[in-house]
Amino acid sequence: MEPLRSSDPARIADHRLLGRLGAGGMGVVYLARTPGGALVALKVLLSEYAEEPDFRERFRREVEVARRVDSRWAVALVDADPEAGAPWLATAFVPGPSLAEAVSAYGPLSERGVRLLGARLAEALGEVHRAGLVHRDLKPGNVLIAHDGPRLIDFGIARAPDDLTLTATGMVVGTPGYLSPEQAGGRDGDGIGPASDVFSLGCVLAFAATGRAPFGGGEVDALLYRAVHDPADLDAVPAGLLQLLDRCLDKDPARRPDAAELVRELTADGGDRDGEEPEAAPRHGEVSDAAAPRDDEASGWLPEPVTRLIAERSAAALALPDIEHTLAPSDTPSASGPAEPDTRETSGAAEPQDSRPPGRRRFLLLAGGAVALAAGGGGAWWAAARDGGSGGAGAGAASSRRPVHTVALHGDLSGPQRRIGRAQERGLRVAVAEFNARRDIPFTVKVRAVDDGGDPAASARVAAQLTDDPAVLAVVGPTTDDTGQAALATYDAGLLPVVGVSPGTTALSIQGFRSFLLARMPDAVLPIYVSNYLRGSARTSKVGIVVDRPAGNYGTNLASSLSNVLNSVQYPSVPEVVSAMRRDFGGAVDSVLSAGADSVFFAGLPDRGALIATTLRERAFEGVRISGPALLDDQFLTLAQEGAEGWVMVAPVVDATRKPEARKFAAAYREHFKEAPPVYAAEAYDVTGMLLDALAGLPSKGRTRQGLLTAVRTGKYEGITKTFAFEKNGMMVLDGTGGFLWRVDQGRFVYDGPAPLTV
Predict the structure, then answer these.
(1) CA 498, CA 687: separation in Å to the nearest integer?
(2) Does 446 carry a binding-site annotation?
């Protein structure tokens, strides 16, 4: 839980707010006390969505469904007002983690634990189905864990099988990776029945038993395809559960068991005693109280660390002060002083002193509360950018009377991708210095650079800190896909514009974040240029595609996209997958070469790219060797040595020293930092210029986060690297530019200009 923010209300409909439990793209969930003093989780729809009829209708539906489902294993609805200006609903507060959090942190459940989990979720689904409804979004994140069993939550997209409102044929509703084949295939127009929930429950139980999703991870399209066509990964499922989960995950809905049959089979061996009902779980209108009677059947169903966590959170919840002692938003201590320009901050600083009562402070810590980010050492920067000063003829008294706005850099400045994060920080600072040096500017800009060290958890905390700083009007970053995924929901809740220049996954854009703009060509599109290069100027006849498992989603996305592109034009390719357990690429190389491949595409990272490069050199392979943007890294050159020579990379970045439009920037960068600009510096310079240009074009009263976001989303900016314009989902308008060729020549990377758009 996080403390309330200054923008949060103190009360909602006589419910006193105590803190934030979470925030998403459409609303905020608070911990609150009812007028009677009970704890509830109070969900509020953001006002901008409340004005949209479709979103308000979905919220009404969630309230209606929660009222109709009467199960001790579904979280109880306490109160709601879907017609309020900001619609809200309050449910029983469960002081435990989600199943996703518990398994990710402490590992899979035992077979007995999976049986109890499955039986009680099946009971809840049975009540949902008896009410004539289908949940449609059963996943580990929608299952809360209490000491006596699970609680099913989130009925936002539940509806009757024959209810086709709010959807259309071909629209996928739910969470990829846990969708049934009929959902993944976009067959919502044909009606999705209770068997779909059973399939999703099978996925959830497989996750609980093994610690991984049964259809893996990666891009949405890949997950949907696997759900429809591929068998589930049940290798680590206990033998006693394997047959039942296999039936749940049958592609044919008619062959899956129903909820009642699941309850019987799961309780037959080691689960609940059939026909006995524990007394601990609350029914509708009651609050999930930490002091509820113990359910002996549920004793020992969880790993000991999870049980201890639930007990600690329950005790801390009981120790929360009464309403009159609750901390008001204005009393929240500041985690740090005012945002200073040109400071580099880290997420590893000690917590500030906290004057709150011990019980409340301990609860905030146990519930994952706010962690303060203290300002650290920054390093010296040139005078023009320091303290937001103009550094030009317009400096002096006139500049001191101008408003001051802050642009932040959220990046990995000390971790694995610090080379990219620091390049973006410096590119941003050059843009700000140039802006502040102009005579005609209506405001002065300060820079705030914050380091997440490449850690997703730290990234989430950085996002909360920057969102809470009203002076920050825009953010450039984060650096990686994972840190972006961890931060964007928080930025979106504060409608803080965020522009990413190095994350490459399309998943960040298709999740519906309103404030995120992806200002580069995504990884999944780059293989179009790879294909054009291989089939055109390289004149290859067959492509060997080597997918390296340690590259995760990045490698899978590149390889699957290239395979799809080549298949679409009936161009032959030979796929080969290398396990993370292997460091010998000889087998993979020999396999693709013996199949007649005269070019090799490597979908992987620099360290292991050096291994395959060395192997190809040992085989005296003289064909084209090509890869994606990850290999544009000095580590590849250092490790591969002579093996790197001649490799080609397709990347979304330019060499500012060789692109005519970027040479002025390159000269300024070299003047200030005594080196040529590295990759991603010019791109960060561009997007910062785009943000400042849009902000300067707004009237003084319109210089807000929302005003800036609207201006950038609807505008067009001619940068030194490319033209920036955005689709409604925040992805760049793909106008044919954005992919660039690089090659290794005499031990260094050489920029070869735009990648071919056509063969």
Answers:
(1) 10
(2) no
Q: Is 353 exposed, middle or buried (0-12, 13-18, 19+ CB in 10 A)?
A: exposed
User: pLDDT band at 272, cuts 50/70/90?
Assistant: very low
d(CA 721, CA 655): 9
- 427: tokens are 């590119």
Token duo for residue 478: 């984060």
Q: What stretch of H or E contains 440?
A: none
| pTM metric for this prediction | 0.55
Amino acid letter, 367:
A
pLDDT tens for 559-616 read 989 998 998 888 999 999 998 888 899 999 999 999 999 999 999 999 999 999 999 9
- The Cα–Cα gap between 17 and 327 comes to 9
Report which of residues 220 and 514 the model is more confident about.
514
CA 191 remoteness from chain centre: 30
CA distances from 757 to 264, 541, 565, 628, 744 (A): 59, 19, 13, 16, 22
Catalytic option among 70, 79, 81, 137: 137
- The count of C-alpha atoms lying within 13 angstroms of the C-alpha of 741, restricted to the half-sphere facing its C-beta, is 22
Cα–Cα distance measured from residue 707 to residue 713, given in angstroms and rounded to the nearest whole number? 10
First CA to last CA across the chain, in angstroms?
A: 54
* Residue bearing the bigger pLDDT, 328 or 319: 319
Which of 6-10, 103-107, 321-325 has the highest mean predicted lDDT (pLDDT)? 103-107
**149-160 burial: b if 16+ Cβ within 10 Å, else e:** bbbbbbbbbbbe
pLDDT at 84: 87
> Within its chain, how far is the Cα of 249 from the centroid?
27
Domains of the chain, earliest start first = 11-315 (1.10.510.10), 381-521+662-726 (3.40.50.2300), 526-651+741-754 (3.40.50.2300)
- Say which amino acid occupies 532: N
CA distance 6 to 495: 15
What strands, in cross-sheet order, belong to the sheet with 624-627?
A: 573-578, 543-548, 599-603, 624-627, 648-651, 740-745, 748-754
Categorise residue 596: left if φ over 0, alpha if ψ from -120 to 50, beta otherwise.
left
The reported pLDDT for the residue numbered 371 is 24
- State the Cα–Cα distance between residues 202 and 196, nearest whole angstrom: 10
CA pair distance 552, 558, nearest whole angstrom: 10
**3-class DSSP state for residue 227?**
helix
Q: What is the pLDDT of residues 353-391, one digit of tens each?
A: 333 333 333 333 333 332 222 223 333 333 333 334 333
752 phi, psi to nearest 5 deg: -110, 10
Tokens of 53: 């009829």
Is 590 part of the annotated catalytic residue set? Answer: no
Instruction: Look at residues 611, 218, 653, 724 and name the one whose alpha carbon lies nearest to residue 419.
Output: 653
3-state class of 230 per DSSP? coil
What is the CB neighbour count within 10 angstroms for residue 257?
20
Q: CA-to-CA distance for 687 and 487, rounded, in angstroms? A: 19
User: What is the three-state SS of 254-273?
Assistant: HHCCCHHHHHHHHHHCCCCC
| Alpha-carbon distances, residue 155 vs 76, 139, 182, 592 (angstroms) | 12, 12, 19, 49
